[in-house]
Fold:
Amino acid sequence: MRRRQFIGLIGGAAATWPLVARAQQPNRIRRVGILMPTSTDDALGQLWHAAFVQRLQQLGWEVGRNLQIDTRWGAGDTARFRKHAAELAAAAPDVILATANSIVGDLEQATRTVPIVFVSTIDPVGSGLVASLAKPGGNATGFIAFEFSLNAKLLELLREVAPGVRRVAVVRDAFVAAGSAGFAAIQTAAASLGIELSPIGVRDADEIERGLVNFASLPNGGLVVVGPPSSIAPAQRELIVGLAVKHHLPAVYATLGFVAAGGMISYGSDNLDQYRGAAEYVDRILKGETPADLPVQAPTRYSLVVNLKTAKALGLTVPPTLLARADAVIE
Structure:
């Protein structure tokens, strides 16, 4: 199968996955809480949720028979995350699935007893979520999205496809520790490439639009959007992609959702793999293991996705060497 085939980023691929029941589970209905970072109508969020639930089904957990799931959708709203975190913790389920550092932090403030499995976090040790990757030690464990060094790779990819770029706007959430640290990692790479950086926050749509419009008023500009994915709401994601195209800014993103919305290039871990892995950890916890003894896992691979349609609209020719490395190409 050619890697150019772009398979089901936001659609029905999940619906075709086999649902295979394995070991017989106890008759008692177990309860799992899920705190999703997106809104209920976000296609990627729905796909991640489906990947988690279907992997649980493959492991023998069936909603209505031996499993009850309570899902809350944060929609990128900090206040809503805190409210839902408190509600889920108060309900005392058997385990909670959460996404990204800030959401896990809200849950850990709400409970130190309910097991938490997280996905798409960055530097959980530095953020104080776990004691160490090998031995988390508390009530939380899970999967990290990427290491900070990945952000330097985003800058290198941007320069590869747009060698004339001399100025780069870096969109990141300054109120998330991972966003600030990600910007610091890019600064190191920018110095060696002779690139001037301009940080832009994502506090609200006005801040994003004002920052990008002002940045685009000068020539030779490009755009990098760093993780974590849940710190940027779907509506902001579409705004950023739209502004990049409108102002002819070549852009590279840390998460696939931006390319699905029309962005040029993404390079990052596969969130579907992380949600499937989270289901396996939830299964192990429901069977008696504890988060303290389950190591935090890093991605085993990163995916490069190129949107040729967007690149052509920006007047850019993607180098054949980059296309050859791509895991998927949108034409």
Notes: Confidence is low (pLDDT under 50) at residues 1-26.
